[in-house]
Prior knowledge:
The protein is of the alpha+beta class. The protein has one domain (3-84). The protein is 43% helix and 14% strand. It has a two-stranded antiparallel ribbon with strand order 1-2. It is flat. The mean pLDDT is 75.
Amino acid sequence: MNPRLKEMMKELGDAINSSVSDSEAIAEIVARMKDEGYDIFLALQATVGFTRREEEDEEPVVALQASLGPQFAVNANDIRFLKALRINVDEAH
C-alpha cells in the first residue's frame, strides 16, 4: 500500500478517535450511566472505502477499519460469564 495513503488513513483514524473521545455529549452520557451504577465500555468501528478517481470502474477498496481500541474494562461478572462458556480469561492483560 502507498505509504502516503497509509499515513493519511492513520490520520483519519486518529481524528475519528479524537472526535469521539473529546465529545462532551458522549462523556456526559457515559458519566450518567456510571452514576446509575453501570459499568460501560464503548467500542466503535468505522469502515472507509476508497478508489482513485481515475480508476472509478473498479470496486471500492476497504481502506480503514478504525476503532477506539481496547478502551474497556472486564469486570468480575464478565469473567464469570466467559468462564461459564469455557473461555479462558488471562487476567494479566
